[in-house]
Model the fold of this input.
Amino acid sequence: MADGQIKVDGDPIFEGIEPIRYEGPTSDNPLAYRYYDKDRVVLGKRMEDHLRMAVCYWHTFCWDGYDIFGAGTFARDWHSPANDRAAADRKMQAAFEFFTKLGTPYYCFHDVDITEASPTPSDLSNNFARAVDRLGAYQEATGVKLLWGTANLFGNPRFAAGGLTNPNPEIAACAVRQIRECMDATHKLGGANYVLWGGREGYDTLLNTDLSRELSNFGRFLAMVVEHKHKIGFKGKILIEPKPHEPMYHQYDFDTATVYGFLKRFGLEKEVHVNIEPNHATLAGHSFAHELATAVSLGIMGSIDINSGNYQNGWDTDQFNLDLRDITLALIELLPSGGLDTGGFNFDAKVRRQSSTAEDLFYAHVGGVDTLARALLAAADVIEKGEIAALKAKRYAGWTESEIGRMMLSEGASLESIADVAAKQNIDAGHVSGRQEYLENLINHSIK
Ligand code: XUL
Ligand code: CO
Done:
């Protein structure tokens, strides 16, 4: 097949798997949706528009099942040990066939995911440009869209000590080159966002790390990313993906609050948003809902890499998102703020090493899609009933309704003036129940 000529519907890879359709909660078909009915309107918006789901290229199509103790376990039709051009092209065909059969509207990629093995930076530039043209043709042929692109600044051995925060300026220059090319490609492909995950932006030991230099370089280069976005006219959001550690002992984008402090320091808090991942939240000691609530309250909510960790260990296990309650709690924080704007739910999740067949990829995604849809229905039920919002409003009503509350928030109030009033009126207020278990029961009642 000549470059640029894409035969999207020939020679199918997932033969025997029909497009996944909505069949309703009583269906017993393992390859059907029970809850995801994309045109169903929930809280005034179609399910598809609420969730804006994306399949990730790296776990679903690139990973062959290897781990640090053993070789790949997946026999994928599109993998070859050499990762040559023919395999990269077949992988792209597999990817778009998969997206189309799953019926999710978006995908996400790293530059190196879509190319053959590229030993030098110039090889990567050339192979990437060719692969991006092919992505464009596939997007056109299938209608599948790009949620975000990102440059892989952690896989190549040159990035062992970081990309943008590398002690060696020549390596940081290689990182900048990759980001520039990947941003331009994301723009060309109509991507909705551009992501930076700083997997190697951090340190293994402070003994060889000039933390101050690394953070100031990181801020400087991030400002250039923002400048470049405006220069090329990219309308999507620039997103930083927080993660506290793994692979580094400490990563600078620790969590949403840390990222906000960093953005503030460099005056970028209105320009850069966050891409929140539940398993990264739990590694940082937070819940998924906490990270969303923090991002919403700071005005930096961007997108979501949906997955889940494992309660028994502290790794980034990137399992598929099956925890209805966690996602419902998170959506209750997100939806009242207007939900996802340019963002989406990207399945940054991988099947287990023993789930080795192509069907397993479908089962995993069908479960992930349906869990999101079911959590959306539960969160919408909670929001529509309004009891939680009303209880919260009542709990804080004093700040707008009582004289002391209004006085304390008024301009000119000081520590002395407030303390004087408290003493003069001999205020001696007591505790009122927070009703936690009652509220938690309401969540469970709405999960149907
Ligand atoms: C790693 C991770 C990445 C980013 C993109 O934990 O989540 O896959 O999402 O680089
Ligand atoms: Co991620």
Remarks:
- The pocket of D-xylulose (ligand 1) is lined by residues 110, 150, 195, 197, 199, 241, 243, 277, 305, 316, 348 (CB under 6 Å).
- The chain has a mean pLDDT of 96.
- The first strand starts at residue 21 and ends at 22.
- The chain has two domains: 21-385, 388-446.
